[in-house]
Write a structure and sequence with these properties.
By secondary structure, the protein is an all-alpha fold. It folds into 2 domains: 48 residues, Homeodomain-like (Arc Repressor Mutant, subunit A); 137 residues, Orthogonal Bundle (Tetracycline Repressor, domain 2). It is 68% helix and 0% strand.
Length: 225
């Protein structure tokens, strides 16, 4: 008769119970989540939001799909994370400029132009993502951003522009809704271009400072000598 000890030796060990939580071997939480957000932004800028899946983000970040699903169970949840952690700070950096210069449109436009350049320089994803959104009319990010932040700041800025025009402080022929698009076109578009190719001669290539200086000069002084 086999002893209990022998039987215990032959018995297979019980399978370890898999507990829910972060996948094994992962980096620390905040760093891993930040990596996934940065990877998503890079892919959104390169190939668009519609063509970027959670699986493609996992491949680009060199992590498992389970790792991505641990932090973001859907692309919409990931976009909400991007809005909160990346876009809201950018919005805050660009906000309040007109309110600080209520009677000086030149000062307001000059500061806002410089801020566009500073934000796009500090966040390399900003310029190409904005450009792709304009070209492809990808509205998912815009819709969720609007749902999160609203458009009160934009409305207040438009009212300020219209007031400047009524007070004779700003060209009456300007279309208020196009002012911001013009500012971004003069700054974000060339910034996106210099990220992929050199503009200007080799001994003096165009950089972010040159773009800001050119945009401010064109907006404030026009093309006259």
């Amino acid at each position: 008769m086999r002893t209990k000890v022998a039987a215990d030796k032959d018995a297979k060990p019980a399978a370890a119970v898999k507990r829910p939580g972060r996948p094994m071997g992962s980096a620390r939480g905040p760093e891993q989540r930040s990596l996934l957000l940065d990877t998503a932004l890079a892919l959104f800028a390169r190939q668009g939001i519609a063509d970027t899946t959670l699986a493609s983000i996992a491949r680009e970040a060199k992590v498992t799909p389970a790792m991505v699903n641990y932090y973001f169970t859907s692309r919409e949840q990931l976009i909400d994370g991007l809005i909160e952690d990346r876009f809201m700070p950018v919005k805050a950096a660009l906000g309040g400029v007109f309110q600080r210069h209520p009677d000086d449109p030149v000062a307001a436009i000059t500061e806002l132009t410089q801020r566009f350049v500073d934000v796009a320089t500090a966040n390399p994803w900003f310029a190409p993502l904005w450009l792709r959104g304009i070209i492809t009319h990808d509205s998912l990010l815009k819709q969720r951003m609007h749902a999160r932040a609203g458009d009160e700041d934009q409305k207040a800025a438009l009212l300020c522009i219209k007031k400047w025009q009524r007070d004779g402080l700003l060209n009456a022929d300007l279309e208020p809704p196009l002012v911001f698009m013009s500012l971004m076109g003069l700054t974000i578009l060339p910034l996106a271009a210099i990220m992929t190719r050199q503009i200007g001669p080799e001994n003096k290539p165009i950089d972010a400072k040159a773009i800001a200086r050119h945009a401010i000069a064109l907006l404030v002084q026009g093309v006259g000598a």
